[in-house]
Amino acid sequence: MGLIFDAVAGELPLVRRVWSARCDATTDFTSVAKGSSMIAFARHAGSWTVHLRGPETGATALTCPEGWEFFGVELRVGAYLPLFPPAGLADLNDAVLPTVPGDRIVLDNRDWEMPTEQNVDVFVDRLVRAGLLFLDPLVEEILHGQRPRSMSERTAQIRFRQAVGVSRRKLLSIEQARQAAQLLTAGESIAEVISACGYYDQPQLTRAIRSVTGHTPGELRSAVPFLAF
């Protein structure tokens, strides 16, 4: 019991995962750093709040209160709402959207029907069609060092940070550590993870893992509880 979490792959191009969680008892957990933004919905005592959340550059100790329910979408890296740039939402600096009676969300001076976990993809699609949710098509190229020849390195980095909320270097370091954490929790040895993920030595791996997950490599191999989408 405690925190019950589930996630499935998104069916829309801009959605990486649709997730849900509920807390049958107050539970402490660690949220792992991540480079993507998300739209999250929280419900307690019949009332909803809607959060726009940016990337997280480090692990965060959180508490899931008893009786709360959550669901949301983790967006593909490079997908964002231009009205709420990801850099301004980073590290739990959420924008909380206003709601009005009838479970309606106010966004861009319009009210929108509150989605459910089952139809949140419809809500996302409506935002895309209204031009409120956008995917920068060059983010993936820039991430892999394949920026257009006509674009300077400085311009590419500014554009990447505008769409993602963190620098390319920071995102790569987060993804590297997340991959290492997944291997460790799967039972791989520390030496194997150092080699597979490109770290110089165990101290470098430990620093990266602790920053991104809040735990040491040894703790991850012991299956400590943490939440990574």
Observed structural traits:
alpha+beta; single chain; 3-stranded antiparallel sheet; Arc Repressor Mutant, subunit A; flat; 6-stranded antiparallel sheet; 229 residues
User: Span between N and C termini?
Assistant: 19 Å
Order of helices and strands: EEEEEEEEHEEEEHEHHHHHH
The radius of gyration over CA amounts to 18 Å
Query: Which structural category fits the helices and strands?
Result: alpha+beta
Average pLDDT confidence is 91
Q: Give the helix tally.
A: 8
Count of individual beta strands = 13
Largest sheet data: 6 strands, antiparallel
Tell me, what's the shape?
flat
Query: Residue share in helices?
Result: 25-40%
How is the largest sheet built, in terms of strand order?
1-2-7-4-5-9
How many discrete structural domains?
A: 2
Oligomer: single chain
Point out poorly predicted stretches: none
Query: Which strand-content bin applies to the residues?
Result: 25-35%
Commentary on this structure:
With 229 residues, the protein is of the alpha+beta class. The chain has two domains: 133 residues; 54 residues, Arc Repressor Mutant, subunit A (Orthogonal Bundle). Helices cover 32% and strands 28% of the residues. It contains eight helices and 13 strands. The strands form four sheets. A six-stranded antiparallel beta sheet has the order 1-2-7-4-5-9, covered by helices on one side. The protein has a three-stranded antiparallel beta sheet with strand order 10-11-12, with no helix packed on it. A two-stranded antiparallel ribbon has the order 3-6. A hairpin with a 2-residue loop joins β11 and β12. The longest helix has 18 residues. The model has no long low-confidence stretch (mean pLDDT 91).
